[in-house]
Amino acid sequence: MKKQLLALAIGSLVAAPSLVLADKGPTVYGKVNITYENVDDGTDDQWELRSNASRIGVKGTLDLDIQNVQAIYQAEFQMDVDDGNRGDNNVFSQRNIYGGFRHANLGTLIAGKFDTPLKKAQMDVDQFGDLAADIGAIVDGEERLSNIIQYSTPKLVNAVTLNLAMIPGEGSTRAGEVRDGAADAFSSSLVFDSGTFYGALAYDSEVPTTVYDADFAGVSSADYTADAVRLTGGARIQNFEIGALYQMSETSDDVAGVSYEDSSYVLSGAVKLSRWKLKAQYGLTDLDQSDDDLTLMALGADYKVGDKSKIFTYYANVEADDAALEDTNFGVGFEHKFSM
């Protein structure tokens, strides 16, 4: 029943855009990204059709009776284009969903479920987002969390934004402690983006996430929270893009007397040649306690077939030196973006 209601709701938005747009109403948007991939995990080698975080959403603003203030909202759902109803699982799953207010001079306040400031601080460094070569394969902290309240300043000097988010635990338990405070976790970022150059400094405190060092040691992420510092920077110069990321993350408190720590590095680059975009990415995560290295290497090529459509191919390898992990993906696919 829930799946049918959700499908009908989204279907009605798509079927009647003239109605919702007549009064500066919501924008319906989304994308379909599908790849046909050879997936080799070192044990099994098979071909798969993948739906790479395809999504549909609605977002917009409402004028209020308060000067310089607008109501804002967004409801975005991931949709599994390839798997149908996936048995007992939903075709649609929640992505960034929130509501809030925006003041022309004082900034924006939103609440709901959405990407943390630390996750968004990756900016344009990740050239392979939502694919097997996504930096989340080796860099922790890539979280979309529930129950976030976030304030963002207006863009200062047309380039700088400060984001501050707090996340109450709402009675959840971590490491044997009940998290019932007003703000059990924090995520923040200071972002600079001039159009040509960009950079960000982000910090998480006691955020529920996975530290790969602990994961490789067999420690459940339910037994700890993590602190992290992320620094990113890059440039978009004519047809060239370069980006770099450094992150240090660790368990907020010792787990059974042990502190687990990851140090991650990512370098990426791309060049645009007419309709082509050639790109590459390399990442390394140094696992402190397990004394292992987790690496990511990826190459790809996109070809634009329209303003909002492309076909592409990519190769990715994610492996650990000592642990039994070696994943290789080779895929071809397409992406269509839409809005109305």
Automatic annotation (TrEMBL):
GO terms for cellular component: cell outer membrane; pore complex. It is found in: Cell outer membrane. GO terms for biological process: monoatomic ion transport. Keywords: Cell outer membrane, Ion transport, Membrane, Porin, Signal, Transmembrane, Transmembrane beta strand, Transport. One of its GO terms (molecular function) is porin activity. Residues 1-22 form the signal peptide. InterPro entries: Gram-neg_bact_OMP (IPR050298), Gram_neg_porin_domain (IPR033900), Porin_dom_sf (IPR023614). Residues 12-322 form the Porin domain. Its main location: membrane. It is a multi-pass membrane protein. Homotrimer. This is Outer membrane protein (Porin). It comes from Marinobacter daqiaonensis.
